[in-house]
Design a protein that fits this description.
alpha+beta; four-stranded antiparallel sheet; 2 helices; 4 strands; globular
Length: 98
């Protein structure tokens, strides 16, 4: 049975639009290549941080809602997001069944 996840990540605010679009597509593909089914992938907005993160005072938030049968997609996203200099922070939340 598929598990629902919500993934939020913050992208560097100084990325050009084309580079940011390519980054989002790359990370969406990482999810789908590892068995996830993306239901929604959308930008929120650029927001100011309460404290500085990696030298930045603001960042662009992106939210992805997806389902997956196993944790492979979430684990691979987590691994690659940790080493990407373009993603400042990320959080993966397993959603409750309703």
């Amino acid at each position: 049975m598929a598990t629902s996840y919500e993934l939020t990540y913050i992208v560097r605010p100084d990325m050009e639009a084309d580079a940011k679009k390519a980054l989002v597509e790359r990370f969406d593909n990482i999810l789908t290549d590892n068995g996830a089914n993306i239901e929604k992938s959308a930008d929120w907005s650029t927001r100011r941080f309460a404290y500085e993160i990696a030298g930045y005072r603001e960042g662009t938030y992106h939210v992805v809602e997806f389902t997956a049968d196993v944790n492979d997609a979430a684990n691979e996203f987590d691994r690659l997001a940790k080493i990407s200099p373009d993603i400042l922070r990320h959080m993966i939340v397993k959603m409750d069944k309703k």
